[in-house]
Amino acid sequence: MTSVVALDAVPHIRRGVKCTYDQIREAHVVLFPEGVLVLNETAASVVSLCDGVRSVGDIALSLGETYVGVEPEDIAELVARLVERRVVDVDG
């Protein structure tokens, strides 16, 4: 079961996690001690905005300028899944 992340929570990439573009897979990936996570374009955009400054709500607003139909609750759910995978941590 995915935990809930508040819209005012501030996510940041965990120490030891690297975000990069994999030329072989032709996809954005997150490398972390437990493995590799292949990201779609939207998820890669979310991860790139997890800078320890923006809140989940701010990330949703920013993505709403680029993508149609961005729902803050969907971003919060994705961030919660990233927390469970130990890719990001949240403050707040």
Structure description:
There is one protein chain. It is globular, with a radius of gyration of 12 Å. The two termini are 20 Å apart. The mean pLDDT is 93. The chain is an alpha+beta fold and 92 residues long. The strands form two sheets. Strands 2-3-4 form a three-stranded antiparallel sheet. Helix content is 34%, strand content 26%. It has three helices and five strands; from the N terminus they run ββββαααβ.
Keyphrases for this structure?
single chain; 3-stranded antiparallel beta sheet; 5 strands; globular
Quick structural overview:
With 92 residues, this protein is an alpha+beta fold. It has helices at residues 41-49, 56-64, 72-84, and strands at 10-13, 18-22, 27-32, 35-39, 88-91.
Strand content: 25-35%
Largest sheet: 3 strands, antiparallel
What's the total count of β strands? 5
**Rg from alpha-carbon coordinates:** 12 Å
The whole-number mean of residue pLDDT values reads 93
Structural class: alpha+beta
Q: Strands across the major sheet, in which order?
A: 2-3-4
Termini separation (Å)? 20 Å
The residue ranges in which pLDDT falls below 50 over 5 or more consecutive positions are none
